[in-house]
Amino acid sequence: MEKIYLRIFVFLFVLLPVVGFAQDEGKDAEELEKSTKQDKVKTGWNFGALPVISFDSDLGLQLGVLTNLYQYGDGSRYPLYDHSLYLEASWFLKGSGIFRFYYDSDKLIRKVRTSLDVSYIPDRTFKFFGFNGYESVYNQAWENDGDAAYKTRVFYRLNRKFFRAKLDFQGEIIGKKFLWLAGADFYNIITSPVDVEHLNKGKSDDKLLPDTVDGLYQKYVDWNIIPQGEKNGGMFTVIKLGLVFDTRDNEPNPQRAIWTEIIVASAPKSFSNMDQGFTKLAITHRQYFTVVNDRLSFAYRLGMQVNLAGHTPYYAQGIMYYSRMAGAYNEGLGGAKTLRGIQRNRLVGDGMAFGNFELRWKFWKFYFIKQNFYMALSGFFDTGKIIQFMDVEDQTKLINDGLQPGDPDYVDLDKYFAFGTERFHNSAGVGLHIAMNQNFILAIDYGRAFNEQDGKSGFYVGLNFLF
Description:
The chain has helices at 2-24, 28-36, 196-200, 216-222, 393-396, and strands spanning 45-56, 60-71, 83-92, 97-109, 112-127, 157-174, 178-192, 233-246, 257-267, 278-292, 296-310, 351-368, 371-388, 425-436, 440-449, 457-463. The protein is mainly beta. The protein has one domain: Porin (Beta Barrel), CATH 2.40.160. Strands 1-2-3-4-5-6-7-8-9-10-11-12-13-14-15-16 form a 16-stranded antiparallel beta sheet. It is globular.
């Protein structure tokens, strides 16, 4: 069954784009014009904003705001915008947060699209489940404080400070559809064990985290699965070159279009403090079909990212390379922007493949407070798999070197590793989207994992369709 599933995945990745190219040419502009003719054209600056309020038993209260400002110019290109500025600032009282500025425009430089992202994302309980998907066992009871096998709520966590600065350009090769891509990303990532003492401040005795239990991250460091030179993170610069084919006119939610990209991302040793550099290849294909004009559409995304050369340190393995970012995180697989309902970062490896399949139904369009709105429901299926594995198994053979079962330091490896078990990780769910002026889109998604090794479910509130 697994081989059949993989063949279906490859079939979709190779053949569906060919079908799409054949049917797409000449239709997208006409359909998109029909879909927006009832909207009242927007001009000048428009913006949407959302408060950020939540509570986490370990991180405390979260407060913040996010806003997206759009400049439509004279409105002649509506719903296309001239400039977009996104700002987000939120902070948990215990120290985690998101601070992000994102700018996107095809008017700053003539015939070149410019995107700039600057983000600082400290996370005192960043999720870490090991490497190679199902080959790393996830024991939910160890983080459930009501279970007899409980260890600590932060067993699958680490402390991470993440800084990213991205500058990307896209320009025309043939018309406005076939494009070149060039860009550079700078990352500074600092990792360490969870600071339990800090998280325990102000807690009642029944909510205290144990301060005598090592989490999975510290165990991986002790077992040298995470090398000593990588355990604290590092700095590196990624140079990107690529090709993009993009027929979208209504970019936030196309009705009939193709968006495909091939990117080579290289992190030279000379621009980092890594022991050696690495090069990755990322291919992403997205396609959109109209089922009922301006009402019901089907969209899918297929992606693959593999290591071409060098060694990628563990703290850089999860980073995904796209021509544009849909949110604050460009990491996977698992979570709001890749596999909804599956634990974030559940799949980490040298190479990954994934697919997202989604039906989108615009069930209500209306005009309110001088803005164009529509509401849409969606149903989705997400899947992903590690296809290029990190070298973990050989290192685990040294963990119990010279030890026998019953020795105090002997490790029951079956509780942590299940080599040879990796397969597709699947989830499905539903979403609600509320769009203002077609570009500012509130997204609410709920997904459930098919396998308890991936967690149970995920509920996400943010902006934009997944792709």
